[in-house]
Specification:
Number of strands: 0
Number of helices: 3
Radius of gyration: 24 Å
Strand content: under 5%
Amino acid sequence: MIGGSDEYPDSIRQIAQLNLYNVFESRTRLLDENSATFRWILASLLTINGGALIALLSSYHIDIAGKIISGRYFCAGIFFAFFLAYITSLSSVAALNPLMSLADFWISALKTGELDEDDAQQLKELQTSMKSAVRPYSIASHVSGWLSVLGCLLGAFMAGPYLK
């Protein structure tokens, strides 16, 4: 038994209760921060790329070829901004199951007042599964966000030679 849980079930229950609270607090924070960040980044990327596309298309100082070439990059920036939104929503969903499994673990420890070596291994596996569940989405969201920025920069850069 870990920490003499046979002798100290109340201590184990207190630890379990604290960790359970932290799991639910983490879930709330994850959803709140993820949602706020997602809205801010998405709005910024869409505004930058969409505004640049509208300015480009309404300009009389850029040849039609420049509008077409640059417009493609701005449209790609808009696409990757929406892809970022999609990936971000998937990452929230992917994080919830491992987080709830962690909550179930602490609920069980709270009920029994016991933790043994097998429980310690299970806890480690649950924590690892949480990291593994969100890693691909984290990488994909970073890549799609930077591709959106790159689309905007390339669109502006490609318009230069076509200025009248």
